[in-house]
Amino acid sequence: MSWRYLATRLHGDGTESLIANEVPLSDVSLTSVLSGPDALDAKVVPEVARLKDDHGRPVFRAWSTAIYAEADGRIRHGSIVVGTPADDSDLTVTGVGFTGYLSDMPYTSTRSRVQTDPLVEVRHMWAHVQGHKHGDLGVVLDNTRSPVRIGTKKKDVEFDTGAGEHVEFEAGPYKLNWWDTDDLAGEVDSLAEYTPFDYRMEHAWDGERIAHRLRLGYPSLGRRRHDLRFVVGENVVEVPKVSFSGDDYASEVLLLGAGEGRKMTRGRAQRSTDRLRRVAVITDGSLSSRKRADAAAEADLRWRRGETDLSQIVVRNHPHARVGSYVVGDDIFVQGMAGWGGDVGLWVRVIEIAVSPGESDDSTLTVIRSDKVGG
């Protein structure tokens, strides 16, 4: 594949202007992440690093420059430059994907909602940030909706469980406040885990401009790819390491949330098993709703199956699965010999893709068993 790198100046009003359409980057690493910020890492020689734009500003300027990677006419990656540390001979350029813009960004108003869709709140948070002067990246969000509702009228909830335990907690509206909401990216991720939903940033040519869209998927993005496969020895170039440890196995999860003593919020999830009962106890003091605590316990339980697992595979550009033919969120079948794990045949979900253009056509994929996501 033929790659090139473009640099633009983000103006903060939803527009950007081209600085250079052939940036000579080397040692490039591009990482695409499902429900998280993408990442860029590259190097430039001092002569290039000292270049200025038409206004006398450095080409590589933190929180001002965007770098896009294009291959075969398609934009494959986009990041905002966040740092330019230098060593003796080269300048390192580091970038974060556009969703990382919300990281450590505060909510500067007050908002209280009852029976609201979490995805409506995500769109509101992005509109809030992009509504500030110099804060508009030009990101457009999908209109995806979910049947999930959060926020209730304020009330004290009190009941006895089937096990005879007394539970008390206060329920109330979903709130965003200037005094305690100081990381909107973390707030989005919390809603994504609870609802659940996935998100993924996409960049594409729209005439001569670059369009930015945040894809939202309930309950998930991606699809099961029966048209593609990963085969060890064919397009999987290294024998993948498998794990089959029972250290994290559990048939039940008990989650301890906000509050103390009898008034502590508690969530629980369990499944039938042909193994011995094992209970994992986890804590999350941010959860004050029984419903959210139960959902968080259920999500954690999916990771505790104690089955043969894969976490990373290295694949090459191959007819079984061409580079660019799959994206984070897709489920693809992996088969073949996998070291001590013997023959492996399982569906995995791609949650991260890392490529190093110019070095090889290989991609390093972070994956999880698909059944850990689907329950």
Any key phrases for this structure?
375 residues; mainly beta; Pnp Oxidase, Chain A; Thrombin, subunit H; 4 domains; 12-stranded mixed β-sheet; 3-stranded mixed β-sheet; 5 helices; 12% helix
Content of β-strand: 35-45%
Give the CA-based shape: globular
Number of helices: 5
Question: Strand pairing plus helix content: what structural class?
Answer: mainly beta
Instruction: Return Rg in Å.
Output: 23 Å
Number of strands: 24
Order of H and E elements: EEEEHEEEEHEEEEHEEEEEEEHEEEEEH
Tell me the domain tally.
Answer: 4
Helix content: 10-25%
User: Mean of the pLDDT scores?
Assistant: 88
* Largest sheet descriptor: 12 strands, mixed
Instruction: Please give the alpha-carbon distance between the first and last residues.
Output: 38 Å
> What are the low-pLDDT stretches, counting only 5+ consecutive residues below 50?
none
